[in-house]
TrEMBL record:
Lipid metabolism as UniProt keyword: no
Any Gene Ontology biological process: cell-cell junction assembly
Organismal lineage: Eukaryota, Metazoa, Chordata, Craniata, Vertebrata
Keyword tags: Calcium, Cell adhesion, Cell junction, Cell membrane, Glycoprotein, Membrane, Metal-binding, Repeat, Signal, Transmembrane, Transmembrane helix
Primary role: Cadherins are calcium-dependent cell adhesion proteins.
Superkingdom as given in the UniProt entry: Eukaryota
One Gene Ontology CC term in the entry: adherens junction
Gene name of the encoded protein: LOC110489881
Protein name, entry field: Cadherin 7
Predominant cellular place of this UniProt entry's protein: other
Amino acid sequence: VIPGKVWSFETSGILFYKQCALCSLVFFVGVCSFSTMFLPRKNSPILLNISFLLTDIISGLQLQLHSDVDKGDGKVKYVLSGEGSTSIFTIDENTGDIHATKRLDREEQAYYTLQAQAVDRLTNIPVEPRSEFVVKVQDINDNEPKFLDGPYMAGVPEMSALGTTVVQVAATDADDPTYGNSARVVYSIISGQPYFSVDPKTGVVRTALPNMDREVKDQYILVIQAKDMVGQMGGLSGTTSVTVTLTDVNDNPPRFSRKNYQYMVLESLPVASVVARVKALDNDIGPNAEMEYRIMEDGPGVFNITTDEDTQEGVIILQKPLDFETKNSFNLRIEATNRNIDPAFVHLGSFSDTTTVKVTVEDVNEPPVFFTQLSKMVVSEDARVGISIGRVSAHDPESSNSAIRYSIDRNTDLERFFNVDALSGVISTAKPLDREVNSVHNLTILAMESHDPTQVGKGFAVITVLDINDNPPVFAIEYETLLCENAAPGQVIQTISAVDKDEPPSGHRFYFALPPSVAGNSNFTLRDNKDNTASIVTKRGGFRRREQVLYRLPVLIVDSGSPALSSTNTLSVSVCDCDSDGVAQSCGAVAYTLPAGLSTGALVAILGCIITLLVMVLLIVSMRRRKKEPLILEEERDVRENIVRYDDEGGGEEDTEAFDMVALRNLNVIRDPKVRRDVTPDTPTFFPYPRSSSSLPVYKTLPDNVVFREFIWDRLKDADVDPSAPPYDSLQTYAFEGNGSVAESLSSLESLSTDSEQNYDYLSNWGPRFKKLADLYGDGKSVFS
């Protein structure tokens, strides 16, 4: 800043002067004025603090920049640069007037830094040093408070005390909080009184009434207002809604709607069936309405009660069978209690209630009842047929006491081993029993009333068959005993054991021995090990496969039953060639070598026989491969009589590869009788017809009833003289349509051998679908000409 130079800024009643080192700011805005004194350093920027009562400056607002160097002769030009120097602020280079071209908003930008300079108009040489000044946009109250997190949802327990905090709301004001009261917000409640209140400064919403009851009203919608300018007149405001829900507490006890309930049930009601449902009402919800039920009197043991978790009903369930003749009514005292009791509300009274449920049992005609539901009996497996095993007994529970008849459910005794006496209930054997086949029989005994056979009771009898010693012991497994040729005398070659289907009470005890007929053999002996096993021991060594390959040793086994039973089992011993460790290498017979070699003549004879056999086999195979052409035509060759696919459009007359076109020609055209109509011939006929045209019938000249007969005979004649035809008469070509049609033949295939000049121009009048045919035939010439 050059001392002695004067800059001035003017704007609608505002004049600024700077001179030397002492600066004075003087503002005149309306009726308000104030001055600011400051002492800047040399060449320091000058801070221009322009205050407006309106944040949005109207475009066209003017400030004037003037230098004392400017004599008004136009030699000085004023230049403005910096933030917004071209977009927001402009300067008149002649007069130094500065204009604002846009509205200013402090919330968008609060400061603008500008540089001003006076330069020579011709040379652009500065005549004054560049000076910088800052334009500060002063805030006004043009933004209302806003609740950024609204609307609010909150909950508070019912019956809460006065002043219980519900939620805190907060509003923000975009105005400058450091200037004035534009951003100072106070809160108030517009809707929701007298139930709730809000703190004016903090925005905390609290209950304004104690003991609000959810069962009366469970939701409140509050309207909270936030107003700036500390709530004074002229301030801006914003609102939000707060939805307050009263959450449930357990402050209501359960209550039965009735003090007495009556239900009737049949005495035949199955156990575990539902007898009745009762419910105590609770105005609370959720866990606070959950119930526990219990039977206090006359019901425990016969009935039980549980809680249905979905409906909170008490479900009374039958635990024992009912009997009208024993007891025909029950008076149940039921208590319902809240499962979750809040100690804070115990002072309100008892959280339980009771009611009486009377259950009346109705009499029904019941089936007979067995005195013993399950009867256990035993019988020996050698019991004779018809012997009594035991007795079952049933009675009619009704007062009529009808006579009972018994029978066996044959689904439980399919082979009819037992009978029951219909009147006495005595069970006896009907067939011989075998414990080893079935040791336990489970029978279902039916008891029915004589006067009402529909009433059937069921009892059960378990019959156990006692064992007797009726099965001899046998080998436990099929033994494969191997004996090495180098076995030494006294060597154990096999250990055997036995099994017995019987089951003696004291367990099995088996005795092993060799029968007297083989006891003195020189090869093997048997040693009883006294533990239900026995060992087979060699008596000698030097066993040779060449001498004997297999030895059969009978073994006598005796059990300890009464009477004792025995059986003779044969043990097979195979002689084997073994290695040094006694592991068998090969068993069975040894091939013997001839004492002398075959002569050369014998070998030649054998070789000749083999060659002859080979030649004969080859001839047979070659003859089998020579097959005559099959009489039944192959599918791929008979392309005109085998429909392979539907909805497959052919290529029309232009397609001559799909089938033999000649075979479909008109029957009145000269045909070659040698050619079959069902296949493409590859073998010429050996008996050709004479080619004179007089021998060929002209079908159109024959009567209608003769046409087809002649046609069929012609085909049969072709088949008879054709060696490749099947050995049976068969009409295999279906290209003849007869001569009864007024339009005669509609096929254009006659063009192969005729000079038809029929006019097909009418096809062009049949529409686009016949365009292709019209193009082919429209000129009146044959498509094949």
